[in-house]
Design a protein that fits this description.
Structural class: alpha/beta
Strand order of the largest sheet: 7-4-6-5-9-8
Radius of gyration: 31 Å
Largest sheet: 6 strands, mixed
Number of strands: 28
Oligomer: single chain
Distance between the termini: 35 Å
Helix content: 10-25%
Shape: elongated
Number of helices: 7
Bound molecules: adenosine monophosphate, magnesium ion
C-alpha cells in the first residue's frame, strides 16, 4: 500500500528516534555539584575523577587459614616446623620468624615479613607445638600482595561514573567517605484539565479523577530526581502561566499532561513564547500524539498528551531518557527482541504503533499477544501488558505467526 496516500501519513512528522535525539540534545546534564556521603551516594553520578589514596590490601595478607612459613623450610613432603606464633585478622604477629618455624595464620591476617608462603591448613597435620606439611610448599602461595586490588594514586573512577554497590564498596575500602556528585535534576509536574478532580474527592457529572499525576509521580519515583507536584491546573491561561512562571524558577524540567492538543495549543504556545519557545511535535507514533517540547526560562518543557496510555508511552520513550540525560547518566537505546505473534493485530499505515502486549516464553520460544483494549484511554491494558509490540510505520497490521519487534517494559519503566 502506498503510505503517502493514507490520511495517517504525515511527511512532516518526526520519527520516534528523531524526537528522542532532539530531546537528548536539549537535555544536557546539570552542571552543579553536591557533596554526598557514601550512605546517600548510590545511583549518583561522580562530578570529578576520584583517585586511590591507599594500597588495598595495605600489606601482604593471607588468602587462607593455614600456616605462614619459608617455602625453603618445607621443600619436601613431611617437613616438620615449630609453631612460633599466631597472626589473626586485625592482630598481626610482630615477632621474628626463626628458621624452621611457622606462624598459625588466618584469612586476612598480615603475613610475617620473614614468611614467603602460606600452606593451607588442610595440607598440614598438627602435632602439639609442631606442624607436619603433607606436601611440598609452593613459593608465594595464598598471599595477597599490597595494592593487588587498588594502588595508591591510581585513578579509580572518572567524572560521569555512576555509583553502584561495587563502586561504593571500593570507595569505602579507600577510606573515602564523601564524594562530589552532580546534583539531582529538579522536575516540576502538573496536570491540566477542568475535568480533573483529586483522587480523594467525589466526582460531579463530567469529571474524572486525575490519574496521570499519580502515574507521573510513580514513574518519577524510579529516577534520581527531585520531583515537585504542582497539582491540578485548570484550563485557564493565567493559571497555567502562573504555574509555569513558578516552575520555570525552580525546575530543570517541567512536565505536564493534557492541554497540548489542537484546541489548547494556542494559549500554551502564547505563554511559552513569552519566556521561551515551544514546538508541537507530531511524532509518527501511536499512541502519543501530540507532544509539546520547548523551554520556559532555564527549564526544559515537555507537554505530554492527556490520554493516560499516550502519557505513559511518551514518558517511557522520551521523558525517561531526558531524565537520565539531565542526571548525567548514560542513555542507551532501548533493546527490543523478536517474538512470534499469537494473533492478528490491526493497524493503519502511517504511524509506528506501540501496541500493549504480553510477551512470554512458551517451550523456549518468545511469543506475544495483545493485552486487549488498545484505546489510548485504556490504561488497564497497560497494566496487563509487559511490553509494546512495535509495528512499523508502513505496516497495515501483522498476522499470527509473524515475528514482530517487541519492546519490553523493563527497558522503559
Ligand atoms: P487533553 O490532552 O487535555 O485534550 O486530554 C485528552 C484526554 O485525556 C481527555 O479525555 C482527558 O480527559 C484525558 N486526561 C487529561 N488529563 C488527564 C489526567 N490527568 N488524568 C486522566 N485523564 C486525563
Ligand atoms: Mg485537557
Amino acid at each position: 500500500m502506498n503510505a503517502a496516500a493514507c490520511d495517517e501519513f504525515d511527511p512532516t512528522a518526526l520519527t520516534v528516534e528523531q524526537a528522542r535525539a532532539a530531546v537528548l540534545e536539549a537535555c544536557r546534564a546539570v552542571a552543579e555539584t553536591r557533596t554526598r556521603s557514601l550512605e546517600t551516594a548510590t545511583g549518583r553520578v561522580l562530578a570529578a575523577d576520584v583517585h586511590a589514596r591507599l594500597d588495598v590490601p595495605p600489606a601482604r595478607v593471607s588468602a587462607m587459614d593455614g600456616y605462614a612459613l619459608r617455602a625453603a623450610d618445607a621443600r619436601e613432603a613431611g617437613a616438620r616446623l615449630h609453631l612460633a606464633g599466631h597472626s589473626a585478622a586485625g592482630h598481626p604477629w610482630d615477632g621474628a620468624l626463626p628458621p624452621g618455624s611457622c606462624v598459625r595464620i588466618l584469612t586476612g591476617a598480615v603475613v610475617p615479613d620473614d614468611a614467603d608462603t602460606v600452606v593451607m591448613q588442610e595440607h598440614v597435620t598438627v602435632e602439639g607445638d609442631h606442624i607436619r606439611c603433607d606436601r611440598p610448599a609452593a613459593d608465594n602461595a595464598n598471599i595477597r600482595g599490597p595494592g593487588e586490588d587498588t594502588r595508591s594514586g591510581e585513578r579509580l573512577y572518572g567524572a560521569g561514573q555512576v555509583l553502584g554497590p561495587a563502586e561504593i564498596g571500593v570507595l569505602a575500602s579507600q577510606g573515602i567517605s564523601e564524594v562530589e556528585v552532580l546534583r539531582k535534576p529538579r522536575v516540576v509536574f502538573f496536570s491540566t484539565g477542568d475535568e480533573l478532580v483529586p483522587v480523594d474527592e467525589p466526582l460531579e457529572p463530567g469529571q474524572i479523577h486525575d490519574s496521570n499525576r499519580h502515574m507521573m509521580r510513580s514513574l518519577l519515583s524510579r529516577y534520581a530526581v527531585k520531583a515537585r507536584d504542582y497539582g491540578i491546573i485548570p484550563d485557564d491561561e493565567d493559571a497555567v502561566r502562573e504555574a509555569l512562571e513558578s516552575a520555570g524558577r525552580e525546575a530543570d524540567l517541567i512536565l505536564t499532561t493534557g492541554g497540548v492538543s489542537v484546541g489548547d495549543a494556542d494559549y500554551i504556545t502564547r505563554i511559552l513564547q513569552e519566556r521561551g519557545e515551544v514546538g508541537f511535535w507530531k511524532i509518527a507514533m501511536k499512541p502519543g500524539r501530540p507532544l509539546a517540547f520547548g523551554r520556559f526560562g532555564q527549564a526544559r518543557f515537555i507537554g505530554l498528551p492527556g490520554n493516560p496510555v499516550s502519557a505513559m508511552a511518551t514518558f517511557g520513550l522520551f521523558v525517561g531518557p531526558a531524565l537520565r540525560s539531565l542526571a548525567g547518566l548514560p542513555v542507551a537505546e532501548p533493546r527490543t527482541l523478536r517474538a512470534r505473534l499469537c494473533e492478528d493485530l490491526r493497524k493503519r499505515p502511517g504511524r509506528t504503533d506501540y501496541q500493549r502486549a504480553i510477551v512470554e516464553t512458551e517451550d523456549g520460544v518468545d511469543v506475544v499477544r495483545s493485552a486487549g483494549g488498545q484505546g489510548s484511554h485504556q490504561l488497564s491494558a497497560m497494566s496487563r501488558a509487559n511490553a509494546f509490540v512495535v509495528l512499523p510505520r508502513e505496516a497495515d497490521g501483522a498476522r499470527a505467526g509473524e515475528w514482530v519487534e517487541v519492546l519490553p517494559f523493563s527497558e522503559l519503566y
